[in-house]
Amino acid sequence: MNRVDSLMPMMTTEILTRGYELDGTRTIPPAVLIRYMEWGRWEFLNSEQNTFRHAINSLVVAAQSLVVLAPVVERINLEISVWLSRVGNTSLDISQMIVDKESKMAIALGRATLVNVDSRRRPKVVAETVKDFIDTSPANFDGRLFPKIQNSLPIESVKSIERRVMPSEIDLLKHVNHSRYVDYVEDARKLLFPEQAEMRDPIFGLTLEYKTEALNGQLLTIDVSPLKSQAAFQSQIRHGQDIVANAIVQLTQ
């Protein structure tokens, strides 16, 4: 299906970067880019042009990936393009690209897997008609760049740190917003492996898989292990023995 055939064409939202969003590298960090993409998805899913929203029930983020192609600083107008790229049995993928509006240079690529759930939060089949809204990805969107999570952590090299969920981290849905987990795994990586995590060095990409919700006041354990063959770190966030999320952070392409 091409963009002419799709019933829901690619949608673009604009956002201006701000100085207070910069981190120690004086650039916009991955967690903020993830939040930009979340805003783009909200605009896409709530748009009056989006007629397929009536064919789905409620969407929960199950996984998301980010690739950072170029650093971005403050006072830059960005365009966030959003489109429906896959529809499965009970889930769908929304893909995104962030572009510098003036230079047209691609800044970041993103993809989120959303699960359609019923009122009891159980997976619900996505209507077949939603597939008519799938759009073709731009030629410069390469989904093969997204890091892939390994099946397990190398036990011998795991280091752990605890972190308590604070009230300020709870969103309007009464749990930790999924973008916060990016801060969790990046903070843990930099604290546990300072010799391999220079503050000035940006990452190339990351992928997170969400297993259960982290709630206010919970004490979480974040396990981090380097994957030397890939110049990457894999993490697992736990509440006791329950896995909250898995993640991989890739340092270089």
Q: How many individual β-strands?
A: 10
Through-space gap between termini: 30 Å
- Spell out the helices and strands N to C: EHEEEEEHEEEE
Helix content: 10-25%
Strand order of the largest sheet: 1-3-4-5-2-7-10-9-8-6
Find the structural class using helix and strand composition: mainly beta
Q: Which fold name corresponds to the CATH topology of the largest domain?
A: Thiol Ester Dehydrase, Chain A
Radius of gyration: 18 Å
Largest beta-sheet details:
10 strands, antiparallel
Mean pLDDT: 90
- What CATH architecture of the largest domain do you see? Roll
Alpha plus pi helix count: 2
The CATH class of the largest domain turns out to be Alpha Beta
Query: Would you identify the CATH H-level superfamily of the largest domain?
Result: Hotdog Thioesterase
Name the beta content range.
25-35%
Shape: globular
Provide a descriptive summary of the structure in words.
With 253 residues, the chain is mostly beta strands. The protein has two domains: 11-143, Hotdog Thioesterase (Thiol Ester Dehydrase, Chain A, Roll), CATH 3.10.129; 155-250, Hotdog Thioesterase (Thiol Ester Dehydrase, Chain A, Roll). The chain has helices at 30-46, 180-192, and strands at 11-16, 58-68, 77-87, 91-100, 106-117, 159-164, 205-210, 219-227, 232-239, 242-250. β9 and β10 (242-250) form a beta hairpin. The longest helix has 17 residues, at 30-46. Mean pLDDT is 90; it is low at 1-5.
